[in-house]
Amino acid sequence: MAEIVNLRQQRKARARAERVEQAATNRVRHGRTKDERQRQENDAERRRRQLDGLRLDEPSRESVGTDRPPQDGGPAQEERD
Fold first, then answer.
1. Measured between alpha carbons, how far is 70 from 77 in angstroms, rounded to an integer?
2. CB neighbourhood size of 58 (10 A)
3. Residue 21's pLDDT is what?
4. 3-class DSSP assignment, residue 72
5. What is 20-53 written as a DSSP string?
């Protein structure tokens, strides 16, 4: 006698297998190895540290933007009658 097969389950199994195969193809095509990712992260950190080391001074939060008067008509502008 023939084996009874649920067609819905067969379609789902076939679609699942196709997605797994497509994912494997995409990983090969677009993916990076763990070493490549680690190397890129290390390079970015090294560049960030190098840039921070070249900074002349750290601007303090109080002195940032105090050389210009506020543009919203705040207390720095005088009323003219």
1. 8
2. 7
3. 97
4. coil
5. HHHHHHHHHHH---HHHHHHHHHHHHHHHHHHHH
CB 69 within 8 Å of CB 77: yes
Buried-exposed string 19-49: b where 16+ CB fall within 10 A, e elsewhere: eeeeeeeeeeeeeeeeeeeeeeeeeeeeeee
Q: Which of helix, strand or coil describes residue 57?
A: coil
Please provide residue 65's backbone torsions phi and psi, each rounded to the nearest 5 degrees: 75, 15
Q: What is the pTM of this model?
A: 0.41
pLDDT at 30: 86
pLDDT along the chain (81 residues), means of 10: 92 98 92 90 95 79 59 59 52
Residues recorded for the chain: 81
76, 69 Cβ separation under 8 angstroms: yes
Average model confidence (pLDDT) for the chain? 83
